[in-house]
């Protein structure tokens, strides 16, 4: 595997990746950012961090008014340490906490509120102002960065995505099963695609990449190839 030549990749680009849970967005975006020496923006982690704060303060996931206030006040930053994208909220490292099953169960409802999404989108757009960023989530190509230099929609079969999530849970020491993960993904897909504000959908100008039978390196190589092609066409 060879690194991309610096003069073949345009500077100050925004690369936006969307797709359902388990499609490979986070790992691919993180590795892509590392290859390009770009910053990595995990928009989903921001909603997960808000969910942690909400549950700690006994705020109901249905209370959009209070959740928006929390989102407005929340100070979040990302820092790469030993190839791990660490998430700090109000100075606290929440990297592991935001991936716990309890957070996963509630994050879709928390993130569905219009006020919450508006607050988060503002923070995300501020982080991406200078370019040189790889952003991933569920509305990065359609809402957060609609004018991104490159838009990609990653997808994979439900079974493949469930197997990936199962491996993630095993690494965290959490007992679960493939059947449980498939059921959870079906629930999240339905919720994310059907929500009123910023639903998960493929942007018309986003490239579709089916990652079912692709390695992470292959996904990163494919996106870099698309970026080079897009740069030649401008």
Average residue-wise pLDDT:
91
Number of helices in the DSSP assignment: 9
How many distinct folded domains? Answer: 1
Fourth-tier CATH superfamily name: P-loop containing nucleotide triphosphate hydrolases
Fraction of residues in helices? 40-55%
Q: What is the C-level CATH assignment?
A: Alpha Beta
N-to-C CA distance? 27 Å
Largest sheet: 5 strands, parallel
Structural class: alpha/beta
Q: In total, how many beta strands? A: 8
Q: Regions with pLDDT < 50 over 5+ consecutive residues?
A: 1-6
Overall spatial form: globular
Cα-based radius of gyration, to the nearest Å? 17 Å
Q: Spell the H/E element sequence.
A: EHEHHEEEHHEHEHHEH
CATH domain topology: Rossmann fold
CATH architecture: 3-Layer(aba) Sandwich
Biggest sheet: strand arrangement: 2-6-1-7-8
Provide structural commentary:
Strand 4 and strand 5 form a beta hairpin. 49% of the residues lie in helices and 16% in strands. The N terminus is likely disordered. It has 234 residues and is α/β, with parallel strands linked by helices. Strands 2-6-1-7-8 form a 5-stranded parallel β-sheet. The chain has a 3-stranded antiparallel β-sheet with strand order 3-4-5, with helices on one face. It contains 9 helices and 8 strands. It has one domain: 3-Layer(aba) Sandwich (Rossmann fold).
Task: Please sum up the structure shown.
The chain contains nine helices and eight strands. The protein has 234 residues and is of the alpha/beta class.
Q: Any key phrases for this structure?
A:
single chain, 234 residues, alpha/beta, Rossmann fold, three-stranded antiparallel beta sheet, 9 helices, disordered N terminus
């Amino acid at each position: 595997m060879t690194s991309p030549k610096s003069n073949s990749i345009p500077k100050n680009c925004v690369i936006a990746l969307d797709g359902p849970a388990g499609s490979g967005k986070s790992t691919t975006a993180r590795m892509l950012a590392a290859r390009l020496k770009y910053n990595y923006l995990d928009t989903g982690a921001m909603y997960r961090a808000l969910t942690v704060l909400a549950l700690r303060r006994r705020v109901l996931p249905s209370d959009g008014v209070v959740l928006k206030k929390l989102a407005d006040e929340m100070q979040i930053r990302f820092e790469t340490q030993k190839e791990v994208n660490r998430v700090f909220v109000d100075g606290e490292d929440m990297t592991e906490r935001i991936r716990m099953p309890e957070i996963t169960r509630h994050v879709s409802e928390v993130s569905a509120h219009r006020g919450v999404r508006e607050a988060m989108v503002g923070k995300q757009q501020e982080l991406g102002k200078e370019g040189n960023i790889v952003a991933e989530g569920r509305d990065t190509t359609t809402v957060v960065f609609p004018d991104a230099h490159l838009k990609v929609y990653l997808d994979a079969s439900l079974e493949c995505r469930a197997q990936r999530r199962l491996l993630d849970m095993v690494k965290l020491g959490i007992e679960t099963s493939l059947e449980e993960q498939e059921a959870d993904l079906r629930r999240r897909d339905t919720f994310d695609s059907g929500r009123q504000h910023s639903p998960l959908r493929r942007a018309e100008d986003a490239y579709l990449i089916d990652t079912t039978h692709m390695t992470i390196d292959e996904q990163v190589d494919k996106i870099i190839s698309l970026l080079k092609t897009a740069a030649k066409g401008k």
